[in-house]
From TrEMBL:
<keyword id="KW-0489">Methyltransferase</keyword>
<keyword id="KW-0808">Transferase</keyword>
<dbReference type="Pfam" id="PF02390">
    <property type="entry name" value="Methyltransf_4"/>
</dbReference>
<comment type="similarity">
    <text>Belongs to the class I-like SAM-binding methyltransferase superfamily. TrmB family.</text>
</comment>
<feature type="region of interest" description="Interaction with RNA">
    <location>
        <begin position="154"/>
        <end position="159"/>
    </location>
</feature>
<feature type="binding site">
    <location>
        <position position="98"/>
    </location>
    <ligand>
        <name>S-adenosyl-L-methionine</name>
    </ligand>
</feature>
<feature type="binding site">
    <location>
        <position position="148"/>
    </location>
    <ligand>
        <name>S-adenosyl-L-methionine</name>
    </ligand>
</feature>
<keyword id="KW-0819">tRNA processing</keyword>
<feature type="binding site">
    <location>
        <position position="73"/>
    </location>
    <ligand>
        <name>S-adenosyl-L-methionine</name>
    </ligand>
</feature>
<feature type="binding site">
    <location>
        <position position="152"/>
    </location>
    <ligand>
        <name>substrate</name>
    </ligand>
</feature>
<feature type="binding site">
    <location>
        <position position="125"/>
    </location>
    <ligand>
        <name>S-adenosyl-L-methionine</name>
    </ligand>
</feature>
<dbReference type="InterPro" id="IPR029063">
    <property type="entry name" value="SAM-dependent_MTases_sf"/>
</dbReference>
<keyword id="KW-0949">S-adenosyl-L-methionine</keyword>
<dbReference type="GO" id="GO:0043527">
    <property type="term" value="C:tRNA methyltransferase complex"/>
</dbReference>
<feature type="binding site">
    <location>
        <begin position="219"/>
        <end position="222"/>
    </location>
    <ligand>
        <name>substrate</name>
    </ligand>
</feature>
<dbReference type="InterPro" id="IPR003358">
    <property type="entry name" value="tRNA_(Gua-N-7)_MeTrfase_Trmb"/>
</dbReference>
<dbReference type="InterPro" id="IPR055361">
    <property type="entry name" value="tRNA_methyltr_TrmB_bact"/>
</dbReference>
Length: 240
């Protein structure tokens, strides 16, 4: 028999309410790192990879040492297109968000090899970076190129381009700024066009899909697809 006094039961305690988890548009996959990527992370990461700090607004002038139009890229993959665009538009500054470490290492390697000064990187969820660190009306543009299309219908809810996300995103684009999306999956292109057209603060720059802007390079994957007759759809909308 226990000698501990019996504790009175508190009838006011309510059962815990499960926390609703946000649906992620990405899955962090393991990837092999080459020696060049590992070296670039170690040597260039401290300079070009920015720390994620919730609630602390990014100061682009302090980061880049100048005032210039700021473009956010969400999910830059291995960074090849990002590097080319930054060189094509040297009067712009670019913030790239990518959760996959091999991609971060690959872009850092390009930055070092090609001496590209106008790119900085967040290795973090772009949605959280946007909400916590990017000031309203501060972006000249946003690039979302070939996001995961989540082909299966039951996974469509994971697609990044959804009404709720777009409504949050456009608040960070300055009036006259743009949102440029591209995809090689036609059902996703149709969804993008529907969602972006329904956002009242955006206006389409074209009648439907846009011609590929000159600054966006063709990727190796895209070139291969075009040769096989696969389509690519660009959408460019402006903030009112």
């Amino acid at each position: 028999m226990s000698d501990k006094p019996e504790q009175p039961q508190d009838s006011t305690v309510e059962p815990a309410v499960p926390v609703k988890r946000a649906i992620k548009s990405f899955v962090v996959r393991a990837g092999r790192m080459g020696t060049g990527q590992i070296k670039a992370l170690a040597e260039l990461g401290p300079r070009f990879v920015l720390p994620y700090q919730a609630g602390q607004r990014l100061d682009p002038q302090a980061v880049f040492g100048r005032q210039a139009p700021l473009v956010l890229e969400i999910g830059f993959g291995m960074g090849g297109a990002t590097a080319q665009i930054a060189q094509t538009l040297p009067d712009h500054d670019f913030i790239g968000c990518e959760v996959h470490e091999p991609g971060v290492g690959a872009l850092l390697k390009l930055i070092g090899e090609q001496d590209i000064p106008n790119i900085r990187i967040f290795q973090h969820d772009a949605v959280e970076v946007l909400e916590q660190m990017i000031a309203p009306d501060s972006l000249a543009g946003v690039h979302i190129f070939f996001p995961d299309p989540w082909h299966k219908k039951r996974h469509n809810k994971r697609r990044l381009i959804q009404p709720e996300f777009v409504a949050k995103l456009v608040k960070h684009i300055r009036p006259g700024g743009y949102l440029h999306c591209a995809t090689d999956w036609e059902p996703y292109a149709q969804q993008m066009l529907e969602v972006l057209s329904a956002e009242p603060t955006l206006v389409n720059s074209a009648e439907g899909y846009a011609e590929k802007p000159a600054y966006r390079p063709l990727t190796k994957f895209e070139n291969r697809g075009l040769k096989l007759g696969h389509g690519v759809w660009d959408l460019v909308f402006k903030r009112r």
